[in-house]
UniProtKB/TrEMBL annotation:
Matching PANTHER family: GNAT FAMILY ACETYLTRANSFERASE, N-ACETYLTRANSFERASE DOMAIN-CONTAINING PROTEIN
A Pfam family matched in the record: Acetyltransf_1
CDD domains reported for this sequence: NAT_SF
Name of the molecule in the record: GNAT family N-acetyltransferase
SUPFAM superfamilies: Acyl-CoA N-acyltransferases (Nat) (SSF55729)
Superkingdom, taxonomy of origin: Bacteria
Organism whose genome encodes this protein: Streptomyces griseoloalbus
Domain N-acetyltransferase: 61-206
Length: 206
């Protein structure tokens, strides 16, 4: 029996934010950005809201019909150096996404800005691709194949259109899942300062 998937709209914003907040409470990277369970419980949802707003405006969010899982995708052109990229001379672009996100989410937390800058710094450029920014499955429903179904629907389209895909895995468990779906390491892991690793991964169309 297949997983029913639809494209989320603005009316689904609160559902998506709540889903991502629940799904990433125990994620190693979320724990690094928001150290401490109570701090994370009261603040983490603001970052998920910022990400949701960006992708609702600029990309696409797929969600299962029962609201238990979602995937945030951006279509990246060949000349885009990554989300929140900097100029070649190191100066921030006029539209400085990481700074804006930090101001909206938690101005005193430099890691909110840093995570955006670090992931932008390793984001591949030169080829158009689909970027899986985040995928979340609510606790209690993980391991049922919902994430695989969400990713697979976009990868099937990538294969038909001859388009590559890219993501950063935030845990060993997710990295193994992505490898099974055809993703391979795209450079060395990103070591967050005094924190966990993230694995950039690239998938050629089949």
């Amino acid at each position: 029996m297949g997983v029913a998937i639809r494209t989320a709209g603005d009316e689904d914003r609160e559902l998506i934010v709540r889903l991502l907040d629940e799904a990433f409470q125990d994620d190693p990277v979320s724990g690094w950005v928001f150290p401490g369970a109570e701090y994370r419980r009261t603040t983490h949802h603001r970052l998920m809201a910022a990400f949701t707003d960006i992708v609702l405006a600029e990309g696409r969010i797929d969600v299962t019909e029962d609201g238990s899982a979602c995937a945030l995708w951006l279509s990246m052109p060949a000349d885009d150096g990554g989300h929140g990229a900097e100029r070649a001379d190191g100066a921030a672009t006029e539209d400085d996404g990481p700074v804006q996100v930090r101001q909206a989410v938690d101005p005193d937390n430099e890691r909110v800005e840093l995570i955006g800058r670090l992931t932008a710094g390793i984001h591949p450029s030169g080829r158009a691709h689909e970027y899986l920014w985040m995928i979340g499955v609510v606790p209690g429903r993980q391991g049922e194949g919902l994430g695989t179904a969400l990713i697979g629907s976009v990868l099937d389209r990538c294969d038909r259109e001859g388009r590559a895909a890219y993501l950063e895995a935030s845990s060993e468990r997710s990295r193994l899942l992505y490898e099974r779906l055809g993703f391979e390491a795209a450079g060395e892991p990103l070591h967050l300062p005094q924190g966990p690793r993230m694995w950039p991964m690239w998938r050629e169309p089949r």
